[in-house]
Amino acid sequence: MKRLFLIFALVLLVAGATIGAMKWFGLGPFQKPEMAVEMAEKRIEAPEALFVDMEPLLVNVVQGGAIATTIQLEVKIETSGNQNIIKIKRMLPQYKDAFLKDLHAFVPRMISELGRIDLPTLKQRLQLVADRVAGEKGVVQGVLIQSLLDTPQQ
Questions:
Q1: In CA terms, which of 51, 54, 102, 121 is 20 to 30 Å from 91?
Q2: Residues 89, 74 within the same domain
Q3: What is the pTM of this model?
Q4: Residue scoring higher pLDDT (132 or 1)
């Protein structure tokens, strides 16, 4: 009987020491979820978003053989990393040319179908054109339309 009691006390002592150590070091079920989130945040750091300014884009919308409206867009190209900025700045004339060609074809169709300019659709379209000009995914992360000025002709 004494032996059984001694073995039981020894098992309780080892179990208590194990649980105490796990709690002290934050292991197993005693691990704090904040620590796991903080460690994940430290490892994955999103690069800073950098913007490249472009000259304003002027698009004349021709309908019925006459200029119906003139649209002025101020656009910024979003990227990350200095290497991507250098690539974009070197290719800025190609971006502007591609944007203007696409806008001259796309904006009149949008206005005739919707009766207005839909900014989210226009932003997606410019993003597709920018990806096509860049030649690879990830160089241009976004196209920001800062302002849109629609001037109808009288």
A1: 121
A2: yes
A3: 0.66
A4: 132
